[in-house]
Specification:
Elements lengths: L2 E2 L5 H10 L4 H13 L13 H10 E2 L4 E7 L5 E6 L5 E9 L2 E5 L3 E3 L8 H4 L2 E4 L2 H14 L19 E4 L9 H12 L11 E5 L3 H10 L3 E5 L5 H7 L8 H12 L7 E7 L7 H11 L4 E7 L13 H13 L4 E3 L30 H5 L1
Helix pairs in contact: 1-2, 5-6, 7-9, 10-11
This protein binds S-adenosyl-L-homocysteine and iron/sulfur cluster (SF4).
S-adenosyl-L-homocysteine binds next to strand 10 and strand 12.
Length: about 375
């Protein structure tokens, strides 16, 4: 099978070129063509000798996932449904805001961790995405937004529409670091997308060994899905807590901060009506905040069919935020975006052939209906 160059970071590309008897600078040239200029085939690479282009065309390919859905909502949020193989599709979402553009990417087809309020979790799990499938989401979005090197529309720095990437789509990135790390390296590489470490955020439900590995191998900004002030409730909402309880999680956050590009962890907290949104529970979070430098991001729950949860009301969310703010904490409340296209956090469904038999599989055709 041809090697898919989309997922090779600088080191991987150099190794491939060394195998072909080619110099390292050729590998860098090809990286730039693919990621900075968005080249989709070798013929476009005009400053590379014809013989080398022919050699590459024989043994390698630039193969992004197939775009099978592409919708934009009234607020400008745009969502792509990407088919990664015969049985699975995942989603990527672009969120434009004043002065920045954020791409939310998926790391797995489904998720094994089964958080109680998450639609991805409810779909079950099929497989890890390859580094090409992860990076391919950024490559596709960049091209679709017309923002490779010579593109026009740009809001972020460096002439690009996408200034930030967050791993908050489908899947748990820490369960797929073998593929997430090369994709991260390409996002950060100057010959790739040149994003700053502070503008690339990995979100985890608290997979402690993964946090340690990421800190070691490719530290970027970290968001942790906390969602509860204590183990009893977190065990129910985020089942991985039974394996890595909050004491271990907080210790891992503090280890991560020693290597992180930012000096705080962002705790995500989904606001579930009557479940985790009381003033008492907000005060419970102050105990957590006393043990690790952090900010809170409150996410109004995004409902989906048969979830069994309701979103907290706006006044309750405001009061909850106020308890934290009065104690001196920084709190943001996420605006819900892309409602009409189901592009909000935790609503990304894709199309996963569940191997865990957790639920009925959602087919692409149903999603489009
Ligand atoms: N697996 C990782 C990253 C993907 S989920 C994680 O759990 O952190 C990204 C964020 O969306 C997480 O904070 C997750 O808890 C939250 N989320 C999941 N389902 C949601 C829903 N229905 N409404 C709002 N947020 C949700
Ligand atoms: Fe997986 Fe994150 Fe959803 Fe939990 S919230 S099931 S870890 S994708």
């Amino acid at each position: 099978m041809a090697t898919n160059l989309l997922g090779l970071d600088a080191q991987g590309m150099q190794r491939l070129f060394a195998g072909l008897g080619e110099k390292p600078f050729r590998a860098r040239q090809v990286l730039k063509w693919i990621h900075r200029r968005g080249a989709a085939d070798f013929a476009a690479m005009t400053d590379i000798a014809k013989e080398l282009r022919a050699k590459l065309a024989r043994g390698a390919a630039i193969e992004p996932p197939l775009v099978v859905g592409d919708g934009t909502s009234a607020d400008g949020t745009r969502k792509w449904l990407l088919k990664v193989d015969g049985a699975n599709a995942v989603e990527a979402v672009f969120i434009p805001e004043a002065g920045r553009g954020t791409l939310c990417v998926s790391s797995q087809a489904g998720c094994t961790l089964d958080c109680a309020f998450c639609s991805t979790g409810k779909q079950g799990f099929n497989r890890n995405l390859s580094s090409a499938e992860i990076l391919g989401q950024l490559w596709i979005a960049n091209r679709a937004l017309g923002c490779h090197q010579y593109g026009a529309r740009a809001v972020g720095g460096g002439g690009r529409a996408i200034s930030n990437v967050v791993f908050m789509g489908m899947g748990e990135p820490m369960m797929n670091l073998d593929n997430v790390i090369p994709a991260l390296r390409l996002m950060l590489d100057d010959n790739g997308y040149g994003l700053s470490r502070r503008r690339v955020t990995v979100s985890t439900s608290g997979v402690v060994p993964g946090m340690d590995r990421l800190a070691e191998e490719c530290p970027v900004a970290l968001a942790v899905s906390l969602h509860a002030p204590d183990d009893a409730l977190r065990d129910r909402l985020v089942p991985i807590n039974r394996k890595y309880p909050m004491r271990q999680l907080i210790a891992a956050c503090n280890r991560y901060l020693k290597r992180a590009p930012r000096d705080f962890i962002t705790f995500e907290y989904v606001m579930l009506d009557g479940v985790n949104d009381s003033d008492d529970q907000a005060r419970g979070l102050l105990g957590v905040a006393a043990r690790v430098r952090c900010k809170f991001n409150l996410i109004p729950f995004n409902p989906f069919a048969n979830s069994g949860f309701k979103r907290s009301g706006p006044e309750r969310i405001r009061r909850f935020a106020e308890v934290l703010q009065r104690a001196g904490l920084t709190v943001t409340t996420r605006r819900t975006r892309g409602d009409e296209i189901d592009a909000a956090c935790g609503q990304l469904a894709g199309d996963v052939a569940d191997r865990t038999r957790r639920s009925r599989t959602v087919r692409i055709s149903e999603l489009r209906a």
